[in-house]
Design a protein that fits this description.
The protein is of the alpha/beta class and about 900 residues long. The protein has four domains: about 80 residues, no CATH class; about 350 residues, 3-Layer(aba) Sandwich (Rossmann fold), CATH 3.40.50.2000; about 260 residues, 3-Layer(aba) Sandwich (Rossmann fold); about 140 residues, Immunoglobulin-like, CATH 2.60.40. It contains 31 helices and 30 strands. The strands form seven sheets. Strands 1, 4, 7, 8, 9, 10, 11, 12, 15 and 16 form a ten-stranded mixed β-sheet that branches. Strands 19-18-17-20-21-22 form a six-stranded parallel β-sheet, with helices on both faces. The chain is globular. The structure holds pyridoxal-5'-phosphate. The site of pyridoxal-5'-phosphate has 12 residues, from helix 8, helix 24 and helix 25. The site of pyridoxal-5'-phosphate (PLP) has 12 residues, from helix 8, helix 24 and helix 25.
Length: about 900
């Protein structure tokens, strides 16, 4: 029978056990092994049944067991210790409160309990959060990264407030049909059974946000709070009675539905999210955020809502835009066009029109923010990443390579600038070690270097804290690797059996599963979402060769594969099926396994048990990638195309680089062939031989040395703690500083300045450039266009500034090596000084010296950039004046003068 109504009966714990609820509601248990062990000891069998979920465990324990525990002095002592530990963790001073800022990032004002200059609070918006398997609100890397960001911020004491949506069905659960086709399930998540608390007004009514929709409809949402250590995470939930049936569905699932659905989700996340933050700060007495960080473009509307707030306070749109930009950080996560949200302009216009949201704001201005105003841009589309860049003074990619790729990708928004000057920096992602490092690895670390130091090493980072790992004996490392591999084998067999049952097999058919995987065989892992650029099936390119590797008589390999395809991605599902069918083949099924339903719970078992973590994306489409980092922290070696983080930190000691045909003029098919070939060859000739090269005690010395080097040298780099510290120092603190500087008067001044710039710029020009006698060892420059190293050229420049004055701009000489087509590379820019001249009417004169400090082909040019103390940099407004063809003629020289 189906119940007509459902409600949750909350357990009433005996008084002495009440603190268990408190421990269960703070998700710190998910990365604190001692608290998890405490829950487990409440009822080991119930813990397993509850899927290691404390809230479910407590709902399920018998009254007798509770009574027993309530008088168990040893248990109560452990409980008190755990509660005290959490209290200290939440209220103590941590890195953020102690450490100093790098020069220049400080400022007036500042955090109430932090170092002066640091933001009092930062709001961090993301469409998904992967905190723990028991709160399944993520689809993949983006969400897990957001979860790791929150946890690392908590460990460091960074006053972050997370903001997201609560999806009633999360993403989806994956299983397989008999013939290997992906099946999707959408279990209902009842927030009352999740580690969430509803945010309430002082009178007990639920706090809500409401958005106006076209046609007089309204979208209401409740605000759920998850506590992630010290960091609150606010999740908006549209499944409330006040909503009509359509509006209730807005937060139904992650990345589902058509574009109107997505737009509503993103409006709720961005606009509703800011309103939720305001409600939270009011109700919790929390300082208001000085910085808003949007993790990918989906939450970009948050900037519009903050403009609306300021506009309601009397600030004009342009000034409000400047104030909002100063305190906004935008992180872009993908160079794949399909990963960027683009909406129909009309759809956006309808939702921000007169009867929609933000009625005080001109919809034309809104549309302008998302316009693809560059060559090749689609005039009919509204691009969330483009809006993100226009609404944030600071933007970044997520690895050094991805920063470069993003600068090229968005260079059209800064016409006239070389890609390397596009103001998009990068902060390489990291992973939260306490979440991803297996308890066995932590225990070995604690034995060797002490528990306190291990925790510090994992959360704060710093390579000196990791050095002690170098002293761990080979035998201990190898023993650990073996243990982890064995555990994985057990886990894989269990999951595989469950999957085959699900696919309709009876137990009698499944005896072979007992022989799946071998704890002594080189184990390779490959798990990730299945967009085409990640090439799930590259390993199948030459099936005979792969089979030979799997079945090699002396040096076999075994492979564990997992991955979900997006429900609407038929191509991705075909790839999954191809892989599953191969894995079903009785000849290889003991050596290659596909596990359905990749998620955090599986990932936490999978990374530690693999000897090698494989990644073969189409370079450079993997913005960063983080699974390889998690594997490395457990002592796995990486085998990967040099993309994302691996491009940056690859060293022969940490694993192997699969040669890529990126950049070579080949078609995709040929490229796959080349790269698959390289992969097989590496496995056959380098990876397997090293793994099986044993000394008399059975230890592969060179392999273990690589594991050790991976832990000591790579380990400290890949930490989320390192990443969050970089965000604080390089982005949050400067953004808070800029935000404070933009008082309403300053914001008006900056807006007026930019308006003046835009109006005047068409008449700004470099009119004349001449080089005079050098002050170098000789006369410096000879008539044949050559110069001597060490010489200095005197530059004289005449420019027209139209309605601007020399205070509004900087005139620079930009010089460096030139390539075959006269492009300056590795350019350095040096400002020229205004020179008072007799003929001011003819333009402004500038002077300066150009040092010939490099041999070889060398060139320079002169340019004019906006300059204002409130700009983050000269490229910010996207305006530049360069010499034209006629400048050179007037000067009797080529426009950018080349000296060879
Ligand atoms: C880390 C992680 C990812 C992201 O891995 P990539 O290497 O970035 O593809 C995806 N899903 C889960 C469950 C993860 O733990």
């Amino acid at each position: 029978m189906k119940a007509i109504r459902r409600f949750t009966v909350r357990p009433v714990l005996p008084e002495p056990l009440r603190p268990l609820c408190h421990l269960a509601r703070n998700l710190r248990w998910s990365w604190h092994p001692e608290t998890r062990e405490l829950f487990q000891s409440v009822d080991p069998e119930g813990w397993r049944r509850a899927g290691a979920d404390p809230v479910r465990l407590l709902a399920d324990v018998s009254a007798e067991r509770l009574a027993e525990l309530a008088s168990d002095r040893r248990f109560l002592r452990r409980l008190t210790a755990a509660v005290d530990d959490l209290h200290d963790y939440v209220h103590g001073r941590r890195w953020y409160q102690e450490a100093l800022l790098p020069d220049g990032a400080g400022g007036a004002g500042g955090a109430e309990d932090g170092t002066p200059g640091r933001p009092a609070a930062i709001a961090y918006f993301s469409p998904e959060f992967g905190i723990t398997a028991v709160l399944p609100q993520y689809s993949g890397g983006l969400g897990i990264l957001a979860g790791d960001h929150l946890k690392a911020a908590s460990d460091l004491g960074v006053p972050l407030i997370g903001v997201g949506l609560l999806y009633r069905h999360g993403y989806f659960r994956q299983s397989l049909s008999r013939d290997g086709w992906q099946q999707e399930h959408y279990p209902v998540l009842d927030p009352n059974e999740l580690p969430l608390t509803m945010l309430r007004e002082p009178d007990g009514t639920p706090a809500q946000v409401v958005l106006a929709l076209p046609g007089g409809r309204r979208l209401y949402a409740a605000i759920w709070q998850a506590q992630v250590g010290r960091v609150p995470l606010l999740l908006l939930d549209s499944d409330v009675e006040e909503n009509g049936p359509g509006e209730r569905e807005v937060t139904d699932r992650l990345y589902g539905g058509g574009s109107e659905h997505r737009l509503l989700q993103e409006m709720l996340l961005g606009i509703g999210g800011v309103r939720a933050v305001r409600a939270y700060c009011r109700l919790a007495g929390h300082p208001a955020p000085e910085v808003f960080h949007t993790n990918e473009g989906h939450a970009g509307f948050l900037g519009l809502e903050r403009i609306r707030e300021l506009a309601d306070g009397g600030l004009e749109f342009d000034a409000a835009l400047e104030a909002v930009r100063a305190g906004t950080v935008f992180t872009t996560h993908t160079p794949v066009a399909a990963g960027i949200d683009r909406f129909d302009r009309e759809l956006v216009a309808r939702h921000f029109g007169d009867d929609g949201e933000l009625p005080g704001i001109d919809p034309g201005r809104v549309l302008e923010l998302g316009r693809e105003s560059y060559p090749g841009g689609e005039p009919g589309l509204f691009n969330m990443a483009v809006m993100g860049l226009r609404l944030a003074q600071r933007a970044n990619g997520v690895s050094t390579l991805h920063g470069r790729v993003s600068r090229e990708m968005f260079a059209g928004l800064w016409p006239g600038f070389d890609a390397d000057e596009v103001p998009i920096s990068s902060v390489t992602n990291g992973v939260h070690a306490p979440t991803w490092v297996a308890p066995e690895v932590l225990r070995l670390g604690a034995r060797q270097v002490g528990a306190g130091r291990t925790e510090e090493a994992l959360t704060v980072g710093g390579s000196q804290r990791w050095a002690a790992v170098a002293n761990i004996p080979d035998a201990a490392i190898w023993e650990l690797r073996r243990t982890l591999r064995e555990q994985l084998v057990t886990e894989v067999r269990e999951r595989l059996r469950a999957s085959w049952r699900q696919r309709g097999a009876g137990s009698a058919e499944l005896g072979w599963i007992e022989r799946v995987l071998d704890p002594g065989v080189l184990t390779i892992g490959f798990a990730r979402r299945v967009p085409s650029y990640k090439r799930l099936t590259l390993m199948l390119r030459d099936r005979d060769r792969l089979t030979e590797l799997l079945l090699h008589p002396e040096r076999p390999v075994q492979i564990v594969v997992a991955g979900k395809a997006h429900p609407a991605d038929e191509g991705g599902k075909r790839l999954v099926q191809e892989l599953v069918r191969f894995a079903d083949d009785p000849r290889v099924r003991h050596r290659l396994v596909f596990l359905p339903d990749y998620g955090m719970a599986m990932a936490q078992k999978l990374y530690p048990g693999c000897d090698v973590w494989l990644n073969n994306p189409l370079r450079p489409l993997e913005a960063c990638g983080t699974s390889g980092m998690k594997a490395a922290l457990n002592g796995a070696l990486n085998l990967s195309v040099r993309d994302g983080w691996w491009d940056e930190w690859y060293e022969p000691d940490f694993g192997w680089s699969i040669p890529t045909a990126d950049g070579a003029a080949t078609d995709d098919d040929r490229r796959d062939d080349l790269e698959a070939n390289a992969l097989y060859t590496l496995l056959e000739q380098q990876v397997a031989p090293r793994f099986y090269d044993r000394d008399d005690t059975g230890i592969p010395g060179r392999w273990v040395e690589m594991v050790r080097r991976t832990l000591t040298t790579l380990g400290p780099k890949v930490l989320a703690g390192r990443m969050v510290r970089e965000y604080v120092d390089r982005l949050y603190a400067p953004a808070a500083y800029a935000h404070r500087a933009l008082t309403p008067e300053a914001a008006r001044e900056l807006a007026a300045y930019k308006a003046r710039l835009r109006a005047a710029w068409p008449r700004v020009s470099v009119d004349h450039v001449e080089t005079g006698g050098g002050a170098g060892p000789s006369d410096g420059r000879q008539s044949d266009g050559s110069g001597e190293l060490g010489a200095t050229l005197a530059l004289r420049v005449r420019v027209t500034l139209g309605d601007l004055t020399p205070d509004d701009v900087e005139v620079q000489v930009v010089s460096g090596r030139v390539d075959g087509s006269d492009r300056i590379i590795d350019a350095t820019a040096v400002p020229l000084k205004p020179a008072a001249g007799p003929d001011l009417a003819a333009g402004h004169r500038y002077e300066g010296a150009l040092a010939l400090d490099r041999t070889g082909s060398f060139g320079y040019t002169v340019r004019i950039l906006p300059a204002h103390r409130l700009l983050a940099g000269g490229a910010e407004p996207g305006l530049v004046a360069l010499p034209t063809e006629t400048t050179g003629e007037a000067a009797g020289e080529a426009p950018g003068v080349l000296l060879r």
